[in-house]
Amino acid sequence: MNTNQELILTGDRTTGQLHLGHYVGSLRSRVELQETYKTYILLADVQALTTHYDQPELIANSVHQVTLDYLAVGIDPNKTTLFIQSMIPEIAELTVIFSMFVTVNTLRHNPTIKTEARDRGYTDLYYGFLGYPVSQAADIAFCKATLVPAGEDQIPHVETARKLVRRFNELYAPVFPEPRILTGERLGGLDGIGKMSKSMGNAISLNATPDDVKAKLTKAKTDPARIHRSDPGHPDICPVYAYHQLFRSIYADDIHASCSQGKIGCTDCKQLAGGAINELLEPFRERRNYYEQRENEVKEMLIEGTRQARNTAKETMLEVREAMGIRYFDV
Ligand code: TRP
Question: Mean pLDDT throughout 40-67?
């Protein structure tokens, strides 16, 4: 990081609960960053609509669940401004302006858009879906964010945001800083195939109970070379060993040695990994429970965060209009 004054913006689509992959990929660093920097976190319900427009009730419910996920992992509403994307109409306004400087082909070649379109079996692309990186650029720019802690799949989107703000600044006036991404670690799924993702059914959600965690780990794939307990294992390619590392299990070093020498079985190793995950999740469960009992407090906090974000957005849009010479009058 080359500046000491960062402004953080990040967020998640509200299409379901968050899981451990989100935690190591980004939530963990957000909890640290909020101690030092002004932080905005948005509940990206408009972006959720790009793929789930036919399930608005799922989106609204997820706004609630993802808010609890944030609070549970330690996002502190006194330090972080949490807000709802669709409640900030200025973001939509800025999206329209940014959409003037990006071509359809650039968006079509965005690798994350391509992968998502393929995974979802889209043959033609919805306009809103194709354009969500533009809307994401507006999410980042409205508050003049400099740093975006997010998973590695977000790299192309932050790149688009950089290009859009640079173009705006060149064309009109230097209003926006160029944002950078801060990627976290990548967590493999329980199936040992891709990354952890809810749609692949290979995830452990942040609100999993201790028994859920154990049951999921029991079914997790391990190094396929190990058939008998005494077979030497290859922890560096084993998804369960990766959990020991990523969740900072105190057993990680010992397990590396004993697995390589065929001295520990996968069942025992999974038990220990499950223990480390449950230890991580325990304080999250307590905080979730605390906030679940205080629905009004949570709502008030979202209202306050959204109000703050809205004020910032209004100020930025005045600057945008000023820069473009289209601030005809104030209404
Ligand atoms: N695209 C992100 C995701 O899939 C969500 C998101 C929306 C976001 N706007 C953002 C992330 C701005 C970082 C910055 O979860």
Answer: 98
The chain-wide mean pLDDT, for the chain, equals 95
pLDDT at 3 over 70: no
Domains and CATH numbers, the chain: 7-188+295-324 (3.40.50.620), 210-288 (1.10.240.10)
Mean pLDDT of the region 156-171: 98
Q: Please indicate, yes or no, whether the overall pTM of this predicted structure exceeds 0.70.
A: yes
43 CA to centre of ligand 1 in angstroms: 9
Nearest residue to 210 via CA among 267, 157, 285, 146 = 285
Q: Cβ(183)–Cβ(21) under 8 Å?
A: no
Query: Which of 45, 70, 94, 157 to mutate for ligand 1's pocket (most ligand atoms within 8 Å of CB)?
Result: 157
- What pLDDT was estimated at residue 167? 98
Question: Is the four-CA dihedral 137, 83, 186, 121 of positive or negative sign?
Answer: negative
The residue whose C-alpha atom lies closest to atom 15 belonging to ligand 1 is: 12
The answer to whether the beta carbons of residues 193 and 250 sit under 8 Å apart is no
Amino acid at 207: N
Contact residues of ligand 1, CB 6 A cut-off: 9-13, 42, 44, 47, 136, 139-140, 148, 150, 154
